TrEMBL record:
Species the sequence originates in: Prunus persica (Peach)
Annotated InterPro entries: RNase_H-like (IPR053151), RNase_H-like_dom_plant (IPR044730), RNaseH-like_sf (IPR012337), RNaseH_domain (IPR002156), RNaseH_sf (IPR036397)
Annotated protein name in UniProt: RNase H type-1 domain-containing protein
Source organism, top-level taxon: Eukaryota
Domain annotation RNase H type-1: ranges: 1-74
Pfam family name, one: RVT_3
GO molecular function ontology, one term from the record: RNA-DNA hybrid ribonuclease activity
Amino acid sequence: MNFDGSLMNYHASTGFVIRDSEGHVLIASSNNIGENSINVAEYVALRDGLAVALDRGWDQIVIEGDSKLVIDSI
């Protein structure tokens, strides 16, 4: 799963993509989350992606993101 958060003029967005082992996209999502920090956006993107994976019963997930803070915290 790849996840990311973005911030423009204090308006944050999130997104994630989950692929199978061959790289085919299984699900992708993006959301606007209003006024937030980039760190909140990164955490929300990760949380949302993990929630979808768990709901679908996918329990072996490789997580990739560009936020060292978020990656180190998990």
